[in-house]
Design brief:
25% of the residues lie in helices and 29% in strands. By secondary structure, it is of the alpha+beta class. 43% of the residues are buried.
């Protein structure tokens, strides 16, 4: 079997209030990973700004942009300049009063290869995303690129095995998760550890169950709660890349910025699926109950 490898760059970055400063920093970090041979670069969730969803503020909608728009122009030029496939995560203004949390993928020539609108929208203390984002309506559809079919999902989507499976069933060759997740200050040390390990474990499970590599890129650093109701969020980082058996190819540290470039052997998925033919043995005729909210 002919080996096919992809050099993948992941950027685990802390952000500040100034959007231009964040974008300039990302431009530098993307350039650094591309200079180390990255062909595919993945950014974290809502990377242009602070994680504004800690509070429900109408003023935060001013951060949203149309697609295409100024940010897509900015990242398109970066992708073209470095001849990379670039996965970004933007606050999309689709129409007045209609907004999405949207991943945009750029091809090596700077063109938009496709986009994915986040499907699962959380509404928890410090993660008030339902105030801002309409659930996606583009389905769980991989985005075709010169490097292969990318199964791009976003953050809260990473907890749902159905999302990963539907991407795999449509030919995704990689599962990619731009992410913004961290600890609230009042959580105990044990609880923090359980949360982080659960986040890692569930995604590695998607990798194993589907025989696919995973790229999960989380933001890092402390961001205060503007309302003062909570102690803010300490984004835990721990971005990682796995192979198709859930094995770690790289894991970034907690709490520290890092640019990493990892080689993914894309041919291993075929080898693993021959050993573990989960798709062959699925009892699809018995899965109708999955379309129900709960089976009483």
């Amino acid at each position: 079997m002919k080996k096919r490898e992809i050099r993948t760059g992941i950027i685990q970055q802390s952000n500040v209030e100034n959007v231009c400063e964040n974008m300039d920093k990302l431009s530098h970090n993307i350039s650094e990973t591309a200079g180390r041979g990255a062909e595919l670069v993945v950014l974290q969730e809502l990377h242009n700004s602070l994680y504004f969803c800690q509070v429900e503020s109408p003023d935060s909608f001013d951060l949203a942009e149309p697609i295409p728009g100024p940010s897509t122009d900015f990242y398109s030029e970066i992708a073209r300049k470095h001849s990379i496939v670039l996965v970004t995560s933007l606050f999309e203004k689709r129409a007045p009063g209609l907004y999405h949390n949207t991943a945009v993928v750029f091809e090596k020539d700077g063109s938009i290869a496709g986009k994915y609108r986040k499907m699962h929208i959380p509404d928890d203390p410090a993660y008030y995303e339902k105030f801002y984002f309409t659930p996606g309506d583009l389905g769980f559809t991989p985005i075709g690129t010169s490097l292969g079919k990318l199964g791009v999902l976003v953050c809260w989507d990473q907890w749902y095995p159905e999302a990963a499976r539907l991407m795999a069933l449509q030919g995704a060759e990689l599962l990619i998760y731009p992410t913004a997740i961290g600890w609230e200050s009042t959580d105990s040390i044990d609880e923090k550890s359980r949360q982080r390990e659960s986040w890692i474990t569930v995604q590695r499970g998607h990798s194993v169950a589907n025989g696919l590599p995973i790229i999960s890129v989380n933001r890092v650093g402390y961001e205060k709660d503007p309302s003062g109701v909570t102690g803010g969020i300490e984004f835990w980082g721990s971005s990682f890349v796995t192979g198709p058996q859930g094995e770690f190819l790289h894991q970034c540290p907690d709490g520290i910025e890092e640019n990493a470039v990892i080689t993914i052997d894309m041919s291993r998925s075929e080898e693993v699926r021959r050993m573990w033919p989960f798709l062959r043995d699925r009892r699809i005729e018995e899965f109708g109950g999955l379309k129900k909210r709960f089976i009483d």
